[in-house]
Design brief:
Layout (H helix, E strand, L loop, with lengths): L1 H44 L7 E6 L6 H15 L3 E5 L10 H10 L4 E4 L5 H12 L4 E4 L10 E4 L2 H15 L6 E7 L6 H16 L6 E7 L4 H17 L7 E4 L2 H13 L7 E5 L3 H8 L5 E5 L1 H18 L5 E3 L2 E5 L3 H8 L5
Parallel strand pairs: 1-2, 1-3, 3-4, 4-5, 5-11, 6-7, 6-8, 8-9, 9-10
Antiparallel strand pairs: 10-12
Helix pairs in contact: 2-10, 3-4, 5-6, 7-8, 9-11
């Protein structure tokens, strides 16, 4: 009798267990849904921080590491001040000219423009157009002389030329016959010509004991690939006719510096030519550390980015700003490259 009664209760026992399990599961699901709903409400109630100003960043190249550094530093600084900085054309599939990008920025009605200036009449006229609709323009690194830009944030090109000249004097000896300056054929600004004059005058005043020839060669660099290919062709000739190779090569931008460095390695010419470069990317710093590049001019990209934003802010808030904001320039050599590499390391601590 007891056995039969216990067996008759067994189905009810399992049914109760199942009901309790379903109840617990349902309660858990409802609790989770309530949690998501509360999170959603909290997110909606969180105040939206709207940017107080919208600035445009307009340059000629989308792939230059140097300009990317300047933009990132400026954008980071702007984000702390409620400023949105937009790189015009960065994510577009079509390659627009700088003139077209500047037109887009003006048509967008931005509050200010950070511009890689040049000496072209088209850019000068567009700056005047921006000025008419109360959009201040600050030129960076390359100026647009004679325009209505509000300020130029950059380096003194003549001082850069003097520093290159001193580095040439430091590396040259009585047997040095030629120092070659690689110019950007596509550049319309006068900055590189002023650099060349600074080199020339420094050699005349401080290196008159040397008997070397200073020459210039234009490199078309519409794209990084195009400039690299042209430089490779130049070194192909040097490899076939080593007697024509200059002892010193000066590069006035980051792309040419990297291309010359790669060509020297590829053609097994390390140690046969001194490379004086521009900028201090990790690639360039490592090449200096390995004695492939002799020295490089280092421009503080953080300083450039921040000062550019500050110049626009100052003009919009006061109506005035300095005509020229000068940046610091340093030279990286084998003697001090370790410090730069430490600062460039992501795990520097």
């Amino acid at each position: 009798m007891d056995t039969k009664e216990s067996q008759s209760w067994r189905p009810f026992f399992f049914l109760i267990i199942v009901i309790l399990f379903l109840f617990a599961a349902t309660a858990g699901v409802l609790s989770y849904i309530r949690h998501l709903a509360n999170a959603s409400v909290s997110a909606k109630e969180e105040p939206f921080q709207e940017c107080s100003r919208h600035y445009a960043f307009v340059i000629s190249s989308r792939d230059d590491i140097f300009w990317e550094e300047i933009f990132n530093q400026a954008r980071l600084y702007g984000s702390t001040r409620g400023i949105y900085l937009e790189w015009i054309g960065k994510d577009l599939t079509v390659d627009y000219t700088k003139k077209e990008l500047l037109e887009i920025a003006i048509a967008s009605g931005v509050d200010g423009i950070i511009l890689e200036g040049d000496g072209s009449e088209d850019i000068r006229e567009l700056i005047a157009e921006a000025n008419k609709v109360s959009i201040p323009v600050v030129t960076v690194l390359s100026d647009c002389s004679g325009s209505q830009r509000k300020s130029f944030v950059g380096i003194d090109s003549y001082d850069v030329g003097r520093e290159y000249g001193r580095q040439i004097i430091r590396e040259a000896n009585s047997n040095t016959k030629e120092a070659l300056i690689l110019m950007n054929a596509a550049a319309e600004d006068t900055g590189q010509n002023i650099i060349f004059n600074g080199i020339q005058e420094t050699l005349a005043n401080e290196g008159n004991h040397l008997n070397l020839t200073l020459t210039a060669q234009a490199v078309m660099a519409d794209s990084q690939f195009g400039g690299a290919e042209e430089i490779r062709s130049i070194f192909q000739e040097y490899y076939l006719h080593p007697e024509t190779m200059p002892e010193i090569i000066v590069c006035l931008n980051e792309q040419n510096t990297v291309s010359v460095c790669q060509a020297v390695v590829d053609f097994n010419l390390v140690g046969q030519v001194d490379i004086l470069g521009y900028f201090a990317t990790e690639t360039i710093l490592n090449a200096i550390d390995r004695n492939v590049i002799t020295a490089s001019i280092a421009v503080d990209t953080q300083q450039l980015g921040i000062r550019s934003l500050e110049a626009l802010d100052e003009y919009l808030e006061t109506g005035y700003v300095s005509d020229f904001v000068a940046m610091d320039v340093n030279t990286v050599t084998k003697d001090n490259v370790k410090g730069y590499l430490h600062n460039a390391s992501p795990d520097k601590g």
